[in-house]
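Me: I'm a chemist; would you kindly supply a protein sequence with its structure tokens?

Assistant:
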Amino acid sequence: MTTHARPRLKVGLIGYGYAGKTFHAPLISAVPDLHLVAVASSDAAKVHADWPDVAVHATPTELIARADLDLVVIATPNDTHHPLARAALLAGCNVVIDKPFTVALADARELVALAHRRRLLLSVFHNRRWDGDFLTLRRLVDEGALGRVVEMTSRHDRFRPEVRQRWRESAGPGAGLWFDLGPHLVDQALQLFGPPSAITLARDLTRDGALADDWFHAHLRYDRLHVHLQAGMLVAASAPRFAVHGTAASFVKEGLDTQEDALKAGVRPTWPPRPDWGIDPGPAALVTRAADGGALATPVALRPGAHQAFFAAVAAAIRKEGANPVPPEEALAVMGLIERGIESAAQRRELEWTIQG
């Protein structure tokens, strides 16, 4: 008797800028259960250079109007996330939105309510949950290797002195580094430690000609735990990606996860991942006290990263074979802290926060 593989889930991607080209298209295509069939882009030649068999629609409206899509992925400027996701949900499509969820918490809440009413999957691409260094840190925290964690500094720095002409660095809504990298760092902190009781955010325009914030420092206050989240565009000398201190040990990790660079170089991921995918050379160390009272650093082997695990889990969730990898309620919490942080920066003071608002 001949058996036939079940049909793959058909995916439409809206947007083929940096996020769509570098992350979403290759990660979607890595998952055997997903089939990228359409892209909405004004540059069909750019899409077809990478994916010659994919249909290209000139507008998101044309793509959303297709009757054959199981999933729509939105990788467009931040201020378009809400209207595009709303249109896709109303058309009966499951939806993945690139982070940030939206530019306003109220809009995110509306989308969550709509997805629940329509009984559709809604998820947000918090892919940094699948960075190898974060997976390693989460394991160490869960196992108690650090003892009770009392402080974490999490940084994602770049050195880009020149302001580029693109929407992320413009003066428009949803632009700037707090909306770009803030959601990654906030989401990781929430995954590790849950909701803080207060946030203090400072952000600034540090580069000549900057139109949007290109530096921020956020302090999340917990009970006997302080979390510092920082990013800047003028950091040529790298600081540790993670420096986490506890009552038993510290964890220190240098350098960024390698998956983005691999994707930028055109390396196509697979699912399951190849043995060489997501390998981060670090260095990383668990630091304790030596017998002589000095520091004893023990190298830590980092877990392999796998951003494509997000889309594999999305496919399983659509088929009711697994859980949504980023439930929209978790993305709402990130948006709540992003928005509360903006209020804190405007008032230049610490603001209390609850996960309800």
The chain has a mean pLDDT of 97.
